DNA sequence: TATCTAATTAGATATATATCTAATTAGTTG
DNA sequence: CAACTAATTAGATATATATCTAATTAGATA
């Protein structure tokens, strides 16, 4: 939804007379003169506001004989209300992702030296997975590696390549077939359950 | 929620600059000059808008050293979004009740003569229950009736008081003990399942 | 077709407000 | 306390708009 449409909608309902009309119509359809009477305003004024309400599609009309009844369209109102919610919820999701990222970064800062070597393998499962995933970064998805290549890669981080290589397999980050290693797609990895 | 508060809130967010500020702040807090820079406006203008945003409590501030950071308060925005939804949903409930009432009235008009006598007992269960409940109206809750009194009451609507009296009992509208009849409370009645 | 009525339009007026520049305030830091 | 800076306030201007009265239009009905 473009910003402009939201602005127009909220400007439209951000008026006491128009909100009163909405409330009135929420009880059922009414014709212009009736609305004017109930609100103590002239028909011309009501026309003015109805035009704006129609412009944002929250009101439609239907003729019955000589008089025109105006109806509220609740679904449109609900639609914009949800758009407003999204405007802030989108933010919540982003904030959550950001927090997760910060948390992971903290773990990585703690377990790797400034020149990028792993100090030791974390005991906590959650932290261990973060560390393993960090060491996975240099490997390319789809590329096939020999065991020797994998060992060399791991040794850039830590001497005990055997343990770490085993962890890669056990936690489903990679699979091995005939001594050839390959990255699994992320959706197959062991997820960190909070 | 008073109408006035809703109007003020929607008027506040019904402005392009303010909605842009809200969107910006939904990514994270910012200080005044930063907002002014990103929107291409002067700090004075930003102050003007922030004042209005604070007035409706969707923005709060926190000082860090020499600069003041402005934060969005998503819960307040969500609160008003829900109030907007309620404005239309309240209507849906009322409309439903009204429709049910109209439906019942139609059945009653069909099965009773203009002088209030029952033409015949409806075959459809749903309609029968509406008719029975209509004939229950003259009886007082809590009052104890003899069988003869019940019969007299029913005879005002229809000759076959025995059948109807039995229906009253079978559908749990009344109970009988030692030949004394009494109305059950409505929550015990047979409900009409659509 | 002529007439009636609800709705709309046109035009006037008063009020509200978004924005700017310039001056001032509040608060931090040396 | 003095100097600095971000934020606010004051005042001016231009634009938007809510409301009214009076005139006009659109549509239904006799």
From TrEMBL, chains A, B:
Domain of life: Bacteria
Keywords associated with the record: DNA-binding, Transcription, Transcription regulation
PROSITE patterns referenced in this protein's UniProt entry, alphabetically: HTH_ARSR_2
Protein name: HTH arsR-type domain-containing protein
Species this chain originates from: Parageobacillus thermantarcticus
PANTHER family: TRANSCRIPTIONAL REGULATOR, ARSR FAMILY, TRANSCRIPTIONAL REPRESSOR SDPR
Single Gene Ontology MF annotation: DNA binding
CDD domains given in the database record: HTH_ARSR
Domain HTH arsR-type residue range list: 1-92
């Amino acid at each position: 939804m473009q910003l402009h449409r939201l602005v127009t909608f909220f400007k439209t309902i951000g008026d006491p007379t128009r909100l009163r009309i909405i409330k009135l119509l929420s009880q059922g359809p009414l014709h212009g003169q009736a609305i004017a009477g109930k609100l103590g305003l002239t028909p011309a004024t009501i026309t003015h506001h109805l035009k704006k309400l129609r412009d944002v599609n929250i009101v439609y009309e239907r003729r019955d004989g000589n008089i025109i009844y105006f109806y509220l369209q609740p679904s449109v109102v609900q639609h914009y209300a949800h758009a407003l919610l999204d405007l802030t919820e989108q933010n919540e999701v982003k904030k959550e992702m950001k927090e997760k990222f910060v948390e992971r970064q903290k773990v990585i800062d703690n377990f790797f030296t400034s020149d990028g070597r792993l100090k030791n393998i974390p005991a906590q499962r959650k932290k261990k997975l973060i560390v393993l995933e960090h060491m996975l970064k240099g490997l390319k998805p789809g590329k096939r590696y020999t065991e020797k290549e994998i060992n060399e890669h791991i040794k850039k981080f830590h001497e005990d390549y055997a343990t770490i290589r085993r962890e890669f397999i056990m936690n489903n980050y990679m699979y091995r077939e005939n001594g050839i290693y390959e990255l699994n797609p992320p959706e197959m990895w062991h997820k960190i359950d909070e």
